[in-house]
Amino acid sequence: MAVDSTLTLQAERESVGSSLMEALAAVIESVSDKPVNVSALGRKLGLNRVTVSKLMSSLASETPDEMLATIPGPESLRSAVEAAAEHGTDESTIESAREAIDLFAGLIRDQYGTRAALNAALGTESQKLSEREAVNSRGEVFNGMRRIIGVEAAVWLNAMFFVPSEEDDAVIETTTLHGAYGIRRLRMDTPFYFVFGTPFYEPGRDGSDLATEPMQLDDFYTNEPAVLESTKMGSQICHRLVHDKLGKNAVVDMLTVSIDRKGSRRYAAPESPLRGMSLVMDLPVRSLVFDVILHESLYPGSDAELFVFKPGARGPSNPNDPSSARDRVPTPERIEAFPGEHETFEVPDVPRYGEMIQRMCTALNRPISEFRVHRLTMAYPLTGFQYTMAFRAPLPPE
Fold first, then answer.
1. What is the pLDDT of residues 352-387, one digit of tens each?
2. 241-247 — which CB contacts under 8 Å span 24+ positions?
3. How far apart are CA 209 and CA 250, in angstroms?
4. CA 327 to CA 137: how far, in whole Å?
5. Predicted confidence (pLDDT) per residue in 205-233, tens digit
6. Average pLDDT of span 176-204
C-alpha cells in the first residue's frame, strides 16, 4: 500500500510539474522579447531580476521534478501571470497558467505541507536534485552553527598518508596534515576546541603512538598563524584555539602535522574487515577537502567507501560494527580516486597544497608517485557528524 501511494504521488507531481512548465512557458513566450531581456521581462511581470532569472532557469529544466525544485513559489507566479494579462496575453493562456499554479499550490499544501518538504522529497529522485538539496540544507545548518559555536572557517583540510611500517609488517603508520584556513571568531563567550585521533576503539589494536610532529607549515599560511594550546588525551590530541579578536579582518590559519606509528592494522580480522580514516567536524566550515593518500602496497583492489554517521548517545560509530548502521546518514557526495602526482593537489580551495604534500613526502622519504589518492570534497560539512573513508583490507598472509 505504501509503495502504491508513493507511486501515485510521484505521478501526480509529474503531472502538475508538466502542466506548470507548459503553461508558464506559454505565458513567457507571449510577453518576452527575442532574445529574452531579463530586466525588461522583470519590469513587465513585476518581478525582480533574480526571480525572473530563477523562473527562466527552472523552465529550462530537463524534468518536471527539476523544475519544481527551483521555480519561484505560487504567489510570485500568480503575480507574474496577472501582470502578463495586463500586457495582452490571451485569456486562454492566462487561465491555463492560473489552473496550473493552483494545482502546484495544492500539491504543496495537501500532499507535502510545506515547500521545504516538497524539495526534500524531490531530492531523493535524482543525483542532481539530491546534491542541490543536500548543499542547501547543510548551508542552513552552517549559518546556525557558526552563530551558536561562535567560530567559523573557510576550509577544513585533512590529508592522511598511510605507509607500511618498517618495524612491523602488520602495522600501518599514518601521518596527517590537518587544520583550517580562514578561522574567524564571531563571539568571545564560547571556548573552542578541536580534537584529532581515532574516534572509536578498534578491537585488537595495540594502543596508539600519536604525537604532533614539529613540521613547520607557517610559510604556507594565507593569514596569521592561529595560537593553539595542545594536550594529548589518550589516543587523541586536543587543540584549543587561543584567539581573542573579533572582526572580519581578525582571521587566522592553523595547520598541524600528526604522526601515529601504530595508526592502523594492515590486515583484516573477522570482526573488522574495514580500515580507513574518520573525521569529526568540530567547527562550522564552508568547504571540506578530505584526502586519504595510500601507499601503492596497501588495500590492493579496494575502492574507498564513504560512511557518514550522526553519532548518538552511544558515541562515535565504527563502520565495522553492524549496529552502527542505525547512525548512518545517506549523502549524495562520492569519493573520487586520483593518481599520485603533483597535479592531483592543485586544489583551488587549498593554496600551495602541492608544496605542503611535497614537504611531507620529503619527510617520509617517499615520492608521491608511490601513492594513490582518494578524496572527498564537500560544501558545508555538518558540525559534529562523523565522516569515515573506509577500505576493505586483505586477509593476513599465511
1. 999 999 999 999 999 999 999 999 999 999 998 999
2. 241/151, 241/183, 241/192, 241/193, 241/194, 243/183, 243/185, 244/185, 244/188, 245/185, 246/185, 246/186, 246/187, 246/188
3. 35
4. 19
5. 444 454 555 577 888 888 887 767 677 66
6. 71
Cα–Cα distances in angstroms (integers) from residue 34 to residues 26, 27, 71, in the given order: 14, 14, 22
Beta strands at 171-185 and 224-225: parallel, antiparallel or unpaired:
unpaired
Reduced 3-state DSSP string for the chain: CHHHHHHHHHHHHHHHHHHHHHHHHHHHHHHCCCCCCHHHHHHHHCCCHHHHHHHHHHHCCCCHHHHHHHCCCHHHHHHHHHHHHHCCCCHHHHHHHHHHHHHHHHHHHHHHCCHHHHHHHHCCCCHHHHHHHHHHHHHHHHHHHHHHHCEEEEEEEEEEEEEECCCCCCEEEEEEEEEEEEEEECCCCCCCEEEEECCCCCCCCCCCCEEECCCCCHHHCCCEECEEEEEEECCEEEEEEECCCCCCCCEEEEEEEEEEEEEEECCCECCECEEEEEEECCCCEEEEEEEEEEECCCCCCCCCEEEEECCECCECCCCCCHHHHHHECCCCCCCEEEECCHHHHCCCCCCCHHHHHHHHHHHHCCCHHHEEEEEEEEECCCCCCEEEEEEECCCCCC
Tell which residue, 154, 151, 209, 202, has the closest CA to residue 182: 154
pLDDT in tens, 123-146: 666 677 788 888 988 999 999 999
Q: Which of 384, 260, 378, 375 is nearest to 317 (CA)?
A: 384
Grid cell of 63 as nine digits: 524534468
Look up residue 200 and give its three cell numbers.
572509536
Amino acid occupying residue 42: G
**Cell numbers at 42, concatenated:** 522583470
Residue 9: per-residue pLDDT: 81
Query: Of 31-35, 382-386, 393-397, which one has max mean pLDDT?
Result: 382-386
pLDDT tens readout for residues 267-311: 898 888 999 988 888 889 999 999 999 999 999 889 999 999 998
Q: Residue range 332-346: average pLDDT?
A: 92
